[in-house]
Amino acid sequence: MDYSTKIAHNVAGIPRSGIRDFFELVQGREGVISLGVGEPDFVTPWHIREAAIYSLEKGQTTYTSNLGLLSLRKAIARYVGEFFDVQYEASKEVLVTVGVSEAIDLALRALLNPGDEVIFHEPCYVSYSPSIVMAYGKAVSVETQKENGFSLKPEALAAAITPRTRVLMLNFPTNPTGSVATNEDLEGIAKLCIEHDLIVLTDEIYSELRYDGVKHVSIASLPGMKERTILLHGFSKAFAMTGFRLGYACAPQPIIEAMMKIHQYSMLCAPIMSQNAALEALENGTPAMQMMRDSYHQRRDFLVKRLNEIGLSCHTPGGAFYVFPDIRSTGLSSKDFATRLLEAENVAAVPGSAFGTSGEGFLRCCYATGIEDLRKAMDKMERFVGTL
Ligand code: PLP
């Protein structure tokens, strides 16, 4: 059968993930030091795992409300109120989802009509552009530059807005650059969103992982923004819970209602044992989360220092667990650099081009890897760069 005629056009047109391509090269190799996968190297703290086990032991093996357990939604509203300084009503403004991934998909499908434009800043997380296309929207990227710490500048955003723009997607701290927005830039961005009546979809999954004592500010907390913002967050990164697949969206009720309509038919609800674990994370997980954050902070400082010593210019990212060194001085493309580094030294890092065209000339190194491996990886990288 000719399956090419059976697959939906908008899905057939989606390119393969550059990360997936690269990891096919890594698979099957022995002894690779991986700075590749954006996943905590910590196991989920024991008391959180125990909450999931206890949930099973008690025989809690059922569906929950489509919105998620009310106890969890209350805890989320409390946590978001304290951490982000935005107040949401647990009964109708919070939706528990299967990771932030599902929440992105639901939000875009709930908001877009065919051809509506969605602006996002690039380099960015690999799912954004395909998720927009799968929701029949038009993906409009705004490139960010190393000179600005890869942050989105209001002037650049203003130039990309058209009468068809419906949504702005933000991600601070950013995957893959670790960049954060200044308060001044966030205010400028908010002003534009109000002026042009845009909805903001803000993915703040790395918001606890801010360094140098700086507190994260959400665009949802700025004046006039809560009513036009969908705040997405989850447990994968800060609480080291990727496998639990749990996230949430906080937004005005009509938007949550629209997202819920899709969620109730496509997913029904998030798994109950993961919801119970997430409740434990919010109630008692902060000390463990801070311990992990302090460790990432140390590793970030180590990696930025070593990369600059090696001659790969690297800005100091304000958050997440990625550094994004500039490899242009080597004359290699990011794909060639990553492939040759893997072949020569068995160190895996992701080519910047996997995160959009503006990522070309850079390499994403994830430092959710033990410090000893980071040390070895940097020594190997130094030796490799010395051979070029
Ligand atoms: N958003 C960003 C920016 C990410 O980097 C990731 C995972 O790497 C996700 C969302 C997916 O998160 P989740 O595990 O909650 O689906």
Task: Give an overview in words.
- The chain is α/β, with parallel strands linked by helices and 388 residues long.
- The chain has two domains: 3-44 and 287-386, Aspartate Aminotransferase, domain 1 (Alpha-Beta Complex), CATH 3.90.1150.10; 60-284, Aspartate Aminotransferase, domain 2 (3-Layer(aba) Sandwich).
- The protein is 41% helix and 13% strand.
- The chain is built from 13 helices and twelve strands.
- It has helices at residues 9-12, 18-26, 46-57, 70-84, 99-111, 128-134, 154-160, 183-195, 253-266, 272-284, 286-310, 334-345, 371-386, and strands at residues 33-34, 94-97, 117-122, 138-143, 165-170, 199-203, 229-234, 247-250, 322-323, 347-348, 350-351, 363-366.
- Strands 2-8-7-6-5-3-4 form a seven-stranded mixed sheet, with helices on both faces. The chain has a three-stranded antiparallel sheet with strand order 9-12-11. It has a two-stranded parallel sheet with strand order 1-10.
- The chain is globular, with a radius of gyration of 21 Å.
- The model has no long low-confidence stretch (mean pLDDT 96).
- Bound molecules: pyridoxal-5'-phosphate.
- Pyridoxal-5'-phosphate is lined by residues 38, 99-101, 125, 171, 175, 203, 205, 234, 236, 242, 247.
- Keywords: Aminotransferase, Pyridoxal phosphate, Transferase.
- Its EC number is 2.6.1.-.
- GO terms for molecular function: pyridoxal phosphate binding; transaminase activity.
- InterPro entries: Aminotransferase_I/II_large (IPR004839), AspAT/PAT-like (IPR050596), NHTrfase_class1_PyrdxlP-BS (IPR004838), PyrdxlP-dep_Trfase (IPR015424), PyrdxlP-dep_Trfase_major (IPR015421), PyrdxlP-dep_Trfase_small (IPR015422).
- It comes from Luteolibacter ambystomatis.
